Every structure is written in C-alpha cells, then in structure tokens.
Amino acid sequence: MAVEVELTPKTRSELRTNLRAYRLARRPVVYLGTAPVVRQLQGRPGPGGWWIDGVAQEAGLLPSGGPDPGTGGLLRVRPLTVTDRGVARQVKLQAGRTATWRDPTARSPYTPRGPAPGWEWAGA
After folding, report:
1. Burial of 6 (0-12, 13-18, 19+ CB in 10 A)
2. What is the CA angle 89-113-123, rounded to 5?
3. Distances, alpha carbon 90 to alpha carbons 2, 16, 62, 82, 95, in Å
4. What is the DSSP string of 22-73?
5. Average pLDDT, whole number, for the chain?
6. pLDDT digits over 6-40, tens only?
7. pTM of the model as a whole
8. Selection from 25, 63, 17, 21 nearest residue 43 by Cα
9. Nearest to 18 by CA among 36, 41, 44, 43
10. How far is it, in rounded angstroms, from Cα 42 to Cα 77?
11. Phi and psi of 84, rounded to 5°?
12. Nearest to 98 by CA among 24, 38, 30, 8
C-alpha cells in the first residue's frame, strides 16, 4: 500500500497523472491531505446542491456524486490530522505558501507588490 501526504493542492493534471498510475498498477493508496487537497480529490458541493466531482472521480477511483472517502477500492482519502504542535505549525506554514503571485515571464516567482497586468494566481 502506498501513502501520499499532500499539504497543498497540485494542478489537476498532476493529480490525474498520479492517480492514473496507481489505477493502472492496481496499487492501493491512501491520500492524507489538508482540507483543500481533500476537496480537490473528493469534490465539493456546488450551486443548487449539485455535487462537483473531484479529480479522484474523474480518474475513476471514487464514485461520482458525493464525498466518498473511498470505503472500497484502490483509493482512500483522509484528512491529514497532526497532533504534534511543531509539525502542525510546519504544515500550516507550508500550506500557506500557495498564496503567492507568479509572473510566468519573470525570473523570480514572487513579487512583493501583488498582481500586475498579465500575472496569474499561482494557486489556480
């Protein structure tokens, strides 16, 4: 069994690639993640009460239509629970690093001024 620990959401294509590899290898995997990662994998409630499927449903590893943590099958999705305060602080710091601005044409991926025309949000 493989265990993946994700602190920050990846791009959908990166997650699809990882999940596809586990599915093709028929290898069970447990994903432990922060709340944004769990939502990205399992999906989330959408407007009007409709469920918006996550990447795990798109990859065919979780059933569509709800927040199934993976009770049967190759994938299990669980929230990351940290009891050690020092580790929890590091997780919080790492998870907060996705909120940076990135100019795809600039040398440095960070700017102290915020967005400028033509910039994109790094967490998107």
Report:
1. buried
2. 50
3. 23, 27, 30, 10, 8
4. HHHHT--EEEEE-HHHHHHHHEEE-GGG-EEE-HHHHTTSS-SSS----SSS
5. 76
6. 888 888 888 889 888 888 888 888 989 888 889 99
7. 0.66
8. 63
9. 41
10. 8
11. -80, 125
12. 8
Strand pairing category for 2-6 and 29-33: parallel
- Six-digit token string for 30: 């447990």
* Identity of the residue numbered 116: A
For 57-93, letters b (16+ CB in 10 Å) and e give: bbbebbeeeeebebeeebbbbeebeeeeeeeeeebee
Q: Which two tokens stand for residue 108?
A: 């440095």
Provide the β-strand partners of residue 6: 33
Q: How far apart are CA 68 and CA 76, in angstroms?
A: 9
Structure tokens at 27: 């290898």
